[in-house]
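Operator note (shift B, R.M.): manual run for Helix-turn-helix transcriptional regulator requested after the automated queue skipped it. Running by hand, logging everything below so the morning shift can see what happened. Input copied straight from the record, untouched. If output looks odd, do not overwrite the archive copy; leave it for review.
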Amino acid sequence: MAKHDPDLSLLFHALSDPTRRAILTRLAGGPAAVTDLAAPTGLRLPTVMRHLAVLEEAGLIASAKEGRVRSCAIVPEALAPVHGWLDDQRALWEGRLDRLDDYVMRLMKETGHDD
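Run finished. Output pasted below as returned.
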């Protein structure tokens, strides 16, 4: 059983919602005001603020307030644990599939079905 990483759980929870992923995609193009992030969603501002809070809690975005305008920026290095976990999973499953392939090939040779 893989060890439980609460930070990784926060990241996957934050990434699980399509609205939050859309916000991250928008922020990949540069910082934006909260009102600009809310506009294309069709959601009310308090709802968007809750989505932003989840992203910020996971460390995926940082927000700052200048005067009356709150803006957000993506924190791309926060995705490093997700990349690491996915790379580990890919290596694990590639190894398992390679062993399965070796087993199937060995069975085929033993039964004379090696064509």
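Quick read of the result: The mean pLDDT is 92. The chain has two domains: 6-76, 80-111.
Leaving this for review. - R.M.
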